[in-house]
Each structure stands twice: as structure tokens, then as C-alpha cells.
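REQUEST ID: PR-0412
SUBMITTED BY: lab tech R.K.
PRIORITY: routine
TASK: structure prediction, single protein chain
INPUT:
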Amino acid sequence: MRILVVEDNVAFCRLVAEGLVRVGFSTDEVNTVGAARKAVAAIEYSAVVLDLGLPDGEGVDLLRTLRSSARALPIIVTTARDGLDDRMVGLQSGADDYLVKPFAMDELVARLHAVLRRVDAPTEQVLRTGNVTLDVANRLLKVDGEVQSLPARELEVLELLMRNQGHVIKREALANQIFGKHGHQSDGALDVYLCRLRKLFGDANATARIDTIHGLGFLLSETCQAISSGAVGRSLRS
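STATUS: complete
OUTPUT:
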């Protein structure tokens, strides 16, 4: 996902952009209203992080322009203006969220994921990879037609992997989408959930597998044959 960061303070803009890159986003940085308009016209961004105080115009005016377009582009306002009236103007002008400086990067990331889920919620409710089927609406998992019991967190991890099947999803992006909704968790918690999913796949003879792509992230893909217990063991050691 590509995020446009609009901020007049060049150093702070770079800091925010680098923080987003570390958790799996790609970013572009601009420092003026004019540059932001050109960037949005040229590139289809997933979201915009917008400062209100810009040197060549008001961020609120840019916000209203972006919101008047046909495309539902998620926009989070970040500003030092912490008054209630300022917040109301930002939200009434079309901001999806409003974050007062200074803020923690973890909070910005969590709010970005929240607005992305809300504005661009996935429509597909039944996901399939090999003989693994996940009914998202009913939280029902089946492997080769047999219902499987799985805790809520593991189901969330599996849903994200299945929505990105065939593509590597970065560890940071996966962790932030899961834990951003529930608060801080240790990095090891994600490995525990993945191990449980791999074990379930092995025990149920699933024709899907989760591979660790070292230095990149995780990949869910379909296999031609059911994963054997030995293969699961090798995968867990990877």
C-alpha cells in the first residue's frame, strides 16, 4: 500500500515516512499543497497523511478538494492544532481521523489500518486456498470439508494470509494489522499463531502451506499434495 505524507516540516515528514516504511507501507513525501495535488493526480494512493499548516495554502482546503472527488481516499489529518474547533473543522471537512502532534508512530499505524479497513473493506466473504476454506462472515474454517476449531487471533492471521495468497506479506505489516486492533503484543506472539496454523494444516492434511520467506515475510500458497508431518516439521524449523 502506498501512502502520501503531506507535511511542511521536511525532517518530520521524513520521520513519518520512514516509520511507515518500516511496517510495510511504501510512501511518497511532499511539503506543499501544490505538490500534494500533483501527486494525487498522478498516483493512486491507498491513503493520505495530511498536515493542516502548509506554506502555500491551508491543508483543510486540500482536504475538501480531495474529499469532493469521486474516489473514497482515506485521509488522516496530523496537526499541532489541538482545539475542539480545529478537530471539528477537520472532521467536518472530510477527514477520516484526526491525530494531534506529537503522536506515537504505533498510533498512526493503527489508525491507518483502521481507516483502510473501514473505507476499503474487502467484499469477498468466503476465501479458498487449496482445500482450505474460510467463511469470514461466520468465522468458520474448513479443511477438506471438515470443520476445524481455531482461536480468533489465528483466524485473523489466516484471513490476512488468504486475502494475500500467492504474495509475500511482510512480518511488520501482518503484525500491525493484527495487533493494531488489540494493543501491543510481543513479536513472538505472531510466530506462535503461525506455528499453530501450520500444525493444523499438517494434522488436517491441508493442500495449503505457509512458508517463511527469510528477510521478507510470509507466503500462503496452494500445494498439489497434502503436507506431510515431516514437511510441517521442516517448515516450523525454517
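NOTES: The CA atoms of residues 63 and 93 lie 7 Å apart.
REVIEWED BY: pending
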